[in-house]
Amino acid sequence: MMMLRFLAIPVLVFSAWTWSGQAADFSFFEPIQPPRPFQVMVHRGAAGQAPENTRPALQRCIEDGLEWAEVDVRLTQDGQHILSHDASVTDAAGKVWKINEHPLAELRKVDVGTHFAKRFAGEQLLSLEDCLVLCKDRLNLYLDCKDVHPGHLVEEVWESGLRRQVVVYGGLELARKINAESAGKVATMSKWRPSCGGPEWAVTNGLAAVEIDPPDLTPAIRDAFHRAGIKVQAKVLADWDKPEVWDRVIAAGADWLQTDLPEEILAHALWRRLPKRPVEISLHRGANRYAPENTLPAFAKAVRLGADYVEFDVRTTQDGAFFLLHDSRLNRTTDGEGPFDQLPAAAVRKLSAGVKFGQPFAAVPVPSMEEFLSAFADKIGFYLDAKVIPPAVLAEALRRHRMIDRTVVYQNPKYLAQLKTINPQIRGLAPLGAAKDFAELATGLKPYGVDADWDILSKDLIAECHAAGVRVFSDALGDHERIKDYLQAIEWGIDVIQTDHPLRVLRAIELWASRPSTNAAPAAVGGRN
After folding, report:
1. CATH code for residues 283-515
2. 388 with 316: CB under 8 angstroms?
3. What is the pLDDT of residues 74-117, one digit of tens each?
């Protein structure tokens, strides 16, 4: 009741206020075409996948087809701008570097990557100048100004050619200085609260956008700011970064959502507005872009992304236990070494399956098959790559967890034939490397589906498979992780796309659903990838 009473106050105030002057309507660059109904601002770049505020964190945002990244800007000892949220950073050796006590040249040598993961060893602090170069024509920037020189900041933005790709966030004093230095040509944003008054507050202070906390945002407030030509950003961080809050601020008409979970917001919003999917999605080794592959966090992320299947790999230990791991050796994804099948289960349980992905996942173990099945049965479809597990053991595990009708098992035809003799209801997924081999495969094995090499996909092949009652899966991994390739496969009628890049497939589905006619050629629709 208190929240409803609180929200009612600004609605009444705003309904009585009408903007009569010229709308600001700052024209921002649209990195993604055609644009989405709302845009996301990723907090400190993709900070869950790479060291925050660094080049790889921003590159991840670009690769995922996102519109904005929020980054933090500070002044060095010699008056240069560098990206850092905190006033000091700690290097790989444990030395603390205070940003305003060192020149840019020294700070750019600081290793801020090793603490996140060894794979980012040597990753350095990013200057604002380098950040602007990286993001030009690719990613818009929300500059959270912790400590800046307004004139120099405006000069850097102006010379970079990114004026329409930047919004400068800070207090009103900073906004006034930026407006004065840029003659109102560099966009500014500040926090709005009901106590600030109506949109005239933003207009008077020369703001192009306002940041509003979710409890304070209503459709009436958004409409009032829009009449004044002001963009509205909802800050959905921490406890607000969850579906019920996303739904509320999207329904209220927020232009931008600042979040740590852009992939989940975009997936959640797409599935809510899409009545039917033109294709199913399998996430390769779970959502391995956002969490360590073949781990419970990667599969939990896949569920939250609304995937239809998770693909996972099963291997056998020295003493006959079953765990999820792709490689035959431990080196790449765990802190162990050597062949997996030479370790007993007790030793495998002591390994970290997440430390090489990043410190937030350092305590994540290699999951046993039983742990995985218990956690995710009935939550998502299983695409089980039976690397090393006896058919009888696999069949019994699926029966026990009541997942036979929601699992496809990938292996060679001989293995799948053995499974079929054990339980004819188990759905076999056979590899298909050449279109000419399908007829023999369909006649002999009669699989539930085929995992066809992407390079052999065609409208005719998919139609032939469907005529035989066989579903078509394919891995769009590597060279084919492109929106135009997904669109082509969807047009041909593919059943399941397996991917390492879920947001790219979701974007393809979004574009497909927005077409005036599903017969339009894929090349007619734009997109970053």
Report:
1. 3.20.20.190
2. yes
3. 999 999 999 999 999 999 999 999 999 999 999 999 999 999 99
| DSSP conformation class of 363 | T
CA atoms of 439 and 315, how far apart (whole Å) = 31
Task: Please spell the DSSP secondary structure of 229-247, one letter per residue.
Answer: T-EEEEE--GGG-SHHHHH
Listed in sequence order, the residues at least 6 apart from 376 whose beta carbon sits closer than 8 Å to its beta carbon are: 299, 303, 310, 382
Strand partners, 74: 82
Q: What is the 3-state secondary structure (H, E, C) of 435-485?
A: HHHHHHHHHHCCCCEEEECHHHCCHHHHHHHHHCCCEEEEECCHHHCCHHH
**How is domain 28-269 classified at the CATH fold level?**
TIM Barrel (3.20.20)
- Of 109, 152, 110, 146, the closest CA to residue 132 belongs to 152
With 0.85 as the threshold, say if the pTM is over it. Answer: yes
Sorted by where each begins, the domain ranges of the chain are 28-269, 283-515
Residues 6+ apart with CB under 8 A from 200: 17, 19, 228
Tokens, residue 8: 């009612």
Fold match flag (28-269 vs 283-515): yes
- Tokens representing 48? 């869950």
Percent residues over pLDDT 90 in the chain: 92
Give the DSSP H or E segment for 410: strand 407-410
The DSSP string of 83-114 is E-SSSEEE-TTS-EEEGGGS-HHHHTT-B-ST
Token look-up 């009569």 returns 20
